[in-house]
Amino acid sequence: MTEQDGGNGSPKSSSLTSYEEALEALSSLIIRRTRADGTNFGDQFDVLFEYIKMLDLEEQITNMKIIHVAGTKGKGSTCTFTESILRNCGFRTGLFTSPHLIDIRERFRLNGIEICREKFLAYFWWCYDRLKEKTDDNIPMPNYFRFLALLAFKIFAAEQVDVAIMEVGLGGKYDATNVVKAPIVCGITSLGYDHMEILGNTLGEIAGEKAGIFKDWIPAFTVTQPEEAMRVLEEKASKLNVPLQVAPPLDAKLLDGLTLGLEGEHQYLNAGLAIALCSTWLKRTGHLGDTNLERTDTLPEQFIKGLTSASLQGRAQIVTDTHFKSEQSNELVFYLDGAHSPESMEVCARWFSLAIRENNPDQTLFHRQIDNPKSSHEIVKTQQGERGFQRKSTPILLFNCLTVRDPQLLLPRLMETCADHGVYFKKALFVPSLSVFNKVGSQASTTLTDSKVDLSWQFDLQRAWENLMQGNKGKITDTVSEELKDDTEMSDSNYEHSAVFSSLPVAIKWLRDRSQQNQSVRFQVLVTGSLHLVGDVLKLVKK
Questions:
Q1: pTM for this one?
Q2: 167 is known to lie in a ligand binding site
Q3: Residue 344 labelled as part of a binding site
């Protein structure tokens, strides 16, 4: 990238700066999240407009054709569908999402591809150096997420995208992305209980925060919501003269026999919202003539292509472990989903239960003896493999969640929904995250054998799981799988139905050892509870 004058909005030549140095500088901006209030000017929402002036982004953001999306569940999926549709319509797209799973650059996508290192470094240092120079004690450096949102606006402005799809990080009203004064259209995905320590304890309060992205007279769409949440959304919309509509779920028949690029039945809800957002964006920007949207019984070819080719890591993602190169090494399969609210946990459980059946293309047998109380809930799943022996499915849970979450709300929904579909975990593994909250990049991981790691939260999770298992004793077989019996020397706390491991790498090694020692078993591991955990697993499994 050639050196250009920073005053015209183009990046200066900083690409020689090391990537890790940039991530270290970014890490210095990480603070504990707090509710936006007036006690500290640095935490006030209005200070964002001061940062925008410092970066000369006022006019550029005003001219940007933005789609703004908030919600509890499905924000990332809806934004991904939306970006893919408009890219397939021929537009140059910018997509800002959070969190990232492996690399910070995942948050900034240009035409569906994460920004390259050279451009990231150039834009990063352009923004960081300018803010360092102009901030002071009264207006301190922006915190981590605010800086990333400002960086996204800078990238999309400089790269001259036709449309910027901005996913809200947290809430809506006080989110850093909400500096947008006149988006083209807004979207609110499914609402539920999450981040209550910041957004409020009722669905009404949470809906009020999300509706903070509504702007005067700007059209908005949502999906079917719980009554309390919908009432608040409608009240907020009415006060701002916002034409709020409920987007219907996508009818699968409109995909001409194809399937959505993102797995799970719930994605038809997100796809329906994305269609409404894209259709409105096309109409309000004068591009409606480019696509045939008049008919309701068909979808434009570009929409179908966008919906069926969309991809998003860490949401209903299936990854086969390839650590061992032998032909028998594919019997350890990770099912990754970053669900972390009660509602999304239920959706995740439903997806996993169906996926572990669909992921076995050969003849499968599920034995369920309803008349025998002792074995009425014991599922034995076998598969006739190519090598002439039968494979038994062993579902395992790999779980962690933030301490602000309530495992008493998350784990029962997960267990009960899986049970409703005839799936029972043979073992639940609880691990601390590899990532630490105050670092980005290669320094963001704890050491593999850190003896000082605090496992008290994992022990709490384990107790919650064991109590659930005890409460369901009459329903779930007490038989422990032979393939899981022998080894607990690697764990810090082992019970019949669960174990705590001091680190994720140790837990992965334990799973790989079991897979190697039990070639006739297919280990199907659901990784959930935290997108951070999902990202950490991807880093290890994809190495």
A1: 0.84
A2: yes
A3: no
